[in-house]
């Protein structure tokens, strides 16, 4: 099935405005399209909000992980400065 955007963009790959980025529902030419981050199209406000909430939860998780890693690194530096032996590196087991 040919895309209605193919004639405009001259490509055979599916265009991001053809289906909802979350539920994959087909986006009709005369329907409202709800955009997020410039390149994600959604069929409804609800689908867009669900994606936003999911992205915010991932970002919060990444921030917490980064904070935890900084804390561990800081503790290791303190232990090293206090004369304690700290080993860092990668262990490879074959």
Can you offer a commentary on this structure?
The mean pLDDT is 79. Strand 1 (34-36) and strand 2 form a beta hairpin. Helices cover 44% and strands 6% of the residues. The chain is elongated and about 70 Å long. Strands 1-2 form a two-stranded antiparallel ribbon. The N and C termini lie far apart (49 Å). With 94 residues, the protein is mainly alpha-helical. The protein has two helices and two strands, in the order αββα.
Explain briefly what this protein structure is.
This protein is mainly alpha-helical.
Query: What does the radius of gyration come to?
Result: 23 Å
Structural class: mainly alpha
Largest sheet: 2 strands, antiparallel
Strand order of the largest sheet: 1-2
Compute the separation of the termini in Å: 49 Å
Order of helices and strands: HEEH
Shape by Cα distribution = elongated
**What is the β-strand count?**
2
List unreliable stretches of 5+ residues: none
Which helices and strands appear, and what pairs or packs with what?
Layout: H1 6-9, E1 34-36, E2 40-42, H2 45-81
Antiparallel strand pairs: 1-2
């Amino acid at each position: 099935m040919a895309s209605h955007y193919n004639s405009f963009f001259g490509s055979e790959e599916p265009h991001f405005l053809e289906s909802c980025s979350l539920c994959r529902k087909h986006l009709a030419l005369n329907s409202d399209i709800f955009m997020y981050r410039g390149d994600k199209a959604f069929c409804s406000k609800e689908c867009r909000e669900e994606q936003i909430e999911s992205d915010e939860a991932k970002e919060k998780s990444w921030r917490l992980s980064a904070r935890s890693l900084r804390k561990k690194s800081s503790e290791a530096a303190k232990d090293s400065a206090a004369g304690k032996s700290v080993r860092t590196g990668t262990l490879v087991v074959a």
